[in-house]
Amino acid sequence: MISRDRGIPKGFLPILLPASLGGGLWEALGLPLGWLMGAAVVAGGFAMANVAVSVPKPLYSVSLCALGASVGLAITPDVAATMVLWAPVMGIAAFLGIAAAALMAPVLAHFGHMERSTAFFSLLPGGVIEMANVGEAYGAERTIVSALHAMRVALVVGLLPLALFSVLPAHDASPTDGPLLGWSGLAIALLVGFAGGWAADKAGLPAAWLLGALISVGAVSSTGVLSGRIPEALLAIVQIFVGISLGARFQRARLASIPRALTVGLPVLLFIMGLMAAASALTSLVTPFPFATLVLCFSIGGMAEMVLTSKALAQNVALVAAFQAVRAVIVNACAGAVWRHWASQTHPNNPPKG
Question: Which residues, other chains included, contact 164 with Cβ-Cβ below 8 Å and sequence gap of 6+?
């Protein structure tokens, strides 16, 4: 079980060293997202073996703050202006993800032998916890929703970086984030990020600690007062913790109870990934941004994982983060209303639950 209670849960310390070694091996092999994916594979193996795998909530929150701060530091005044200009496209990308879920939900419901609410919320590209909670209120099966969202994030994080890494030309890489922050600058960035994450968490925003830190540090960085980048060693530690959290979702008891849903969900999710990739390819034809950056912008992975992927592939981290943040806010805020409208339109004689 994923435990994020206060304190140090029993499922954290025993997995920390093996996960770190796995991340180090993956990184040494030169694979993208080495620290994250190596830790996730090891943690997932333990979880599948019915070994408790967990991340302390305070540690996980602080890790997300550090990640959000690292992205916020990339928001220079010019980047901030670009993000404002691209806001409409970000909204379109978010609603494309919702439309893709609505398009494929009947297929998943029919062949997966599940309620339409379960299929819909399993495909809606919001947060894992958020979609499970909202979906349950509308009659969705929480276990299936959680498992398919875990599969969604794992597919995107596992396949997308490898695909881009194998074909990405050198000229697609974005310039460096600048010099390392000094100790005082690093402390300021982390404190500002923590304050923003805490405020976002209290406000109930999705991916609160990551998004709040990104916004608060980005607001400071966009003025030019604070600039630089967070040490790679700290980001490696962040990746390990995020990877453990991702791997912990693959509990054998949960996955073994829904084999049909997972079997049908795999090709459905791959099809949706293909649709979003096609949309990003079309967008790259009429914009100055490279295809690789836009694939990450339009992708339906988790926000933390996509930010780390964009950093690993030297893409426009701030733009990717902005796209993912807008999608997270729109999907999580509109999930219930979209479900009621979709269900009433597709089955007018069978009103939605909730």
Answer: 32, 292, 295, 296, 313
Tens-place pLDDT, residues 195-234: 999 998 898 876 788 888 888 998 888 887 887 888 888 8
CA neighbours closer than 13 Å in the CB half-sphere of residue 99? 10
Report the number of distinct structural domains present in the chain.
1
| pTM for the whole structure | 0.71
**Which domain does 96 fall in, by range?**
76-223+260-346
**pLDDT category, 351, cuts 50, 70, 90?**
low
Neighbouring CB atoms inside 10 A of 7's CB total 10
As to burial, measured by CB atoms within 10 angstroms (0-12 exposed, 13-18 middle, 19+ buried), residue 6 is exposed
In a domain, 13, yes or no: no
Whether 228 is covered by a domain: the verdict is no
* Cα 279 to Cα 275: distance, rounded to the nearest angstrom: 6
CB 196 within 8 A of CB 213: yes
**Coil/strand/helix, residue 207:** coil
Taking the C-alpha atoms of residue 209 and residue 200, their distance in angstroms, rounded to an integer, is: 7
Whole-number Å distance between alpha carbons of 100 and 125 = 9
Provide the 3-class DSSP secondary structure of residue 257.
Answer: coil
Q: Is residue 235 part of a domain?
A: no
Residue 199 lies in a domain: yes
